[in-house]
Each structure stands twice: as structure tokens, then as C-alpha cells.
Amino acid sequence: MLASVCVAGPSLADAPKAFRDLNHNGRLDPYEDTKQPIDARLDDLIARMTIEEKVGTLLHMSGSAAGALGTGRAYDMAKMIPAITKTHITSFITRLAVPPAEMAAQNNAVQRVAEGARLGIPITISTDPRNHFQAVLGASTAGGGFSVWPETLGFAALRDPARVRRFGDIARSEYRAVGIHMALSPQADLASEPRWPRVTATFGSDPALVSKMVGAYVEGFQGGANGVTRGGVATVVKHWVGYGAEPEGFDGHNAYGSVAKLDNASFARHVAAFDGAFAAKAAGIMPTYPVITGVTLNGKPLEAVGAGFNAELIDGLLRKEKHFGGLVVSDWAITNDCPEQCRAPTEQKPQGVAIGMPWGVESLTVEQRFAKGINAGIDQFGGVAEPEPLLAAVKDGSVSVARIDAAVARVLRLKFELGLFDNPYVDANAAARIVGDPSHIREAEAAQRDAQVLLENRDAMLPIRARGKRVWLYRVDPAAARAKGFVIVDDPRQADLAILRVDAPSEKLHPYAFFGSRQNEGRLDFHDGDKDYEAIKRATAAVPTAVAINLDRPAVLTNVRGTVRALVATFGASDAAVLDVMTGAAAAKGRLPFELPSSMAAVATQNPAVPDDSAAPLYPFGYRHP
């Protein structure tokens, strides 16, 4: 609430302009004074905070809503209000996916609650990526009218930092329009293990390319090359470090993926992928889940604990050697227990929301995990809303007040830098105009077309002259094909050609695990009986066939390449974008952001920590059809 009273010194009668009386005392205090430098405002505010308010500041909860992990159409204010006013939490991730005006209104409502709290500290609202095709609960979000771009792999295929920076500019404007201030992205993880489910959100397998693209992403989102700006979105680059080196590709969200295996040489490549984030002064870093094994720092093996508890990785390598001074946010739920239902879910007892990732510290109490994490260098704990364990660690002396204050300062500094203390509210009407702006949608759709990679074009099948051609479609919108002039038939034997869209092969190896049931794991090659492969066989037995395959992971295409006439790789593209490339209305300009192995035997014998090292790859890194 704006106070329009005036002050000159301590007097209220002579104030030259309005100010936000955040602590409701009728005076312009230093932390409320926009003319004061941030350091002075920060010092004043921290001096006013109770230990309970400080500890609440170090929790980054999942926003309460009706659905799992905070999904739904509206915040549950019956839970949000006490979390803000009694637990003193001032950061949360939003997973709402509603029209822009509704999102803006929901976020404004939360800010009003915060403004009414004792010190009026504004809320920092974060999000997982929202501007791509993939949506996996706990990793990415879809919907809400945001412009839809290729996955970051598609940007890696284009190798154009300016394009990434422009994407960041547009996404930043959309985020801020609805009241989102922090991006829990990008992934600077190196895609070194082809079976890993999170390859799709990386910038590929080359450390130099990843570094360059991550730097451009950070610059676009934060609003400049020198750190976050007042109108920017703070980026939290993840996952520090070695996450891509998961044996068999099993992900660290799961107990069966709790260890990553590297050696010093491979580890150095994974670290180098983050250099662009540091150069662009990323606001935050998020440590990875798994225990990093096989690595020595300063001549000593890393402690066998998850990265969020590892002082050598955070306080040592990140803070001291890489000179990172920003915010370190833990990945979600690392202090939670992982009970049997989490460790070994079954059909009778699926994991559900019994979610915890305390890898390497399972034997510690929750209080001890908080203490170990913050003393290792964590500033803020993700996915938790209970302050009692950290409060207890402070009160029994296992965490110092000085360490708490240093972490609180990093959280609050970002709020000042983003301008939230001065005005955290957004215009819902403006949000409806900015999010999904037609010019932004056109740029996003152009990127979908450009990022495709032409792998095969036998007998010069592409470009296809669509007008009047009879086509059999598989997983392609008939309306999009008709708009091109195709005549749709129901049987490939009646067609002149076939156009198919398929996904990279995968399995659901852990259907009862919360994240395993949502992730693409396992094999990368097509087998008889796979629905997509059976469609390919049906088409190629009858007519010349063009296939677009979405490469969320590096597929093995050995038994597909020789049967289709045209083969195009996509990394998130609409049917219209694919058909434009196939008919010559647009050109595929991408190059592969990773190699495509020739067999699962080659995948099984490659080193998960080393990128592009399979024997005799079918298509090498950087390939495109000449």
C-alpha cells in the first residue's frame, strides 16, 4: 500500500513524494528509501529482522495450489497467507498455467499479502521453463499463453547466441508481465550420457557451445551482460556440476539415479560448460542432486554426499575458485527423507509425493541436513516450507547467525536489484497484451523451423510439392496438411507419399517412481512392436516416406535411415513448422547438437561422463545433410 504522506527528516509533513511504508510505522526508513544505495537499504532491513524472519527468507517453497506440487488454476490462499505472514517465506515457485491476466492477478494477490506482513518484504516468484514444448512436472511447465520456442537443444542446433539472447529478451518480458522474477534455468549440464531423460533441456554435448549458449541465455533473461537489471529476470543456472554423467541415464531425482560417475578430465569438461554463466554474472546457481564420484579436488576425493551438501563443490570450487558471489539455491527437497516408498516404489505402493533426495546424507536428521547444506554454501533451500529444522540448527549453534545473515543478504539483494521493494505489482491488462504478442509468436515459430536438422533426403524427396498430392499422415494434424494443399487419405497404399512425426524411442523402466513414471528412460532404438516404428514400416512398405523425429534424446536410427526417403530431426516444433520445412516454405538450418549412436551396444559401452564417444556413430556431432 502506498503512503502518500510527506517527510523531511523525521517529520511526516514535508515528504517530497510518496513512499511505500512497508513496515507500517509512518516513517520513511532506509530500506524503504529508493534514493539510498542497495547496501544501505539491505543493512537496515537485515538489522530489523528477527531470526524467524531470516530463516523464512531462506526457504523457497512450491506455491500452494490444488494440484500436485502446486499445479492448478489458483493459489490456495488459505495456505499461502500463513506461509508468508507466519513462516515468513518470501520466495516460491509457481506452477500455475493460466491465461496471462489471471496469472498476473494471482501473483498480485500474493504480493498484497506480503505487503501486509510486518516488514512488507516482497515475494520473489520463480518458475521452471515455460516457453518450450516439453512439460514434465517438476522440471518444466506448459500453457498460459507464453510464446513457444524450440527446446534449448534446438538453439544449440542453430549455434546462434544472438538468437538465444533474443529469446531471453522476449521470455523476460513475458515473465515480468505476469509477475515472475526468477527463472530456474537454464541447464548448463553437459549432455554426455545419451539415455539421460534431461538431455532435451540442455544445450547439447560440446562444453564450448554450451558455455556460449548459456551465457547468451543469461544475458537475455537478466537484461544485460553485467548481471541482473531492474527489469530483468534472475537466472538460476543448473545443475552444478556433473549431472549429465548419470550411469544408464538414470536421473538424480530418483533413488536409483543418486550417483554420477566421472573422472578429473571428464569433470573438467562439465565444469567448463558453466563458464558462460559466470561471465554473464548469472544471479544464481543450483547444485545437482547426485553424489559425484571419481573426482578429486586439491588432491582429495570429493565427499560422498549430494552436491547440495558438498562444501568442496560449493564453498570451494564454486565460491573460491570460480569467484561466484551470487545466490546458491538447492534443488528441491534435498533435506526431505526418502522412505521405502521413495526408495523402492511398487505397484501396490507407488511413490506418489513421498519425495526426498537426501543422497549421501540419509543417515542424518533433517536438522543436520539443513546445517550441512547451509554450511557447505547453500543460501536457500528449494521445495521446503518448514523452518523448524533450520531454526533449531541456529539455536543449537550448528549454524551461525553470521552464516544466516550472509545467505539472507543474497536473497534480499536480488529483490532490491529487481525493483521489487519499490513496486512488485503488475498490470493484468498489460500482461494479456505482452504475453503471446503476435510478433513474439512469429519469432518463436521461425525458430522452430530454423532449428530443424535435415539428416536424409534420398532421391531429393524434399521439398515436396504439396498441391494435390495424396498423403498418408501419422501424428500430423490433417488441417495443417490441408492448408498446404495436400489431399489426406486413410491408407498409405492409396497415397503418393507419407509424412510421419515420431518421437525418439524410450521406455518407462520405473513406472511407480514419481519422476521415473514421467521421464523417458532406457533404450534409444526402435523395436518391432513400437507404435511409431510400426507406422514407419507400414508407410515405407507402400510409398516414399518422410519422417520428422523429435530428438529429446539422441536416438539410434540405424534401422530407419535406410527405409525412409527423408529424415528430419526436430527439437520442439509445431506441425505447421515441420510441414513448412518439408515443402520448402522454410529451410532447416540446424546441425546436430550431439552425435547419434549407431547401436545400443555402442551406447552401452560409451562413458556416461564423456560426450560423443560412442563407437562409429551413425551421425556425428554437428552433422546436417549436405
Automatic annotation (TrEMBL):
Gene3D superfamilies: Glycoside hydrolase family 3 C-terminal domain, Glycoside hydrolase, family 3, N-terminal domain. It catalyses: Hydrolysis of terminal, non-reducing beta-D-glucosyl residues with release of beta-D-glucose. Its EC number is 3.2.1.21. Residues 50-414 form the Glycoside hydrolase family 3 N-terminal domain. Pfam families: Glyco_hydro_3, Glyco_hydro_3_C. The keyword Hydrolase applies. It is an enzyme of class 3 (hydrolase). One of its GO terms (molecular function) is beta-glucosidase activity. GO terms for biological process: glucan catabolic process. The keyword Hydrolase applies. Residues 489-623 form the Glycoside hydrolase family 3 C-terminal domain. It comes from the Bacteria. InterPro entries: Cellulose_Degrad_GH3 (IPR051915), GH (IPR017853), Glyco_hydro_3_C (IPR002772), Glyco_hydro_3_C_sf (IPR036881), Glyco_hydro_3_N (IPR001764), Glyco_hydro_3_N_sf (IPR036962). Belongs to the glycosyl hydrolase 3 family. PANTHER family: LYSOSOMAL BETA GLUCOSIDASE (PTHR30620:SF16), PERIPLASMIC BETA-GLUCOSIDASE-RELATED (PTHR30620). This is beta-glucosidase.
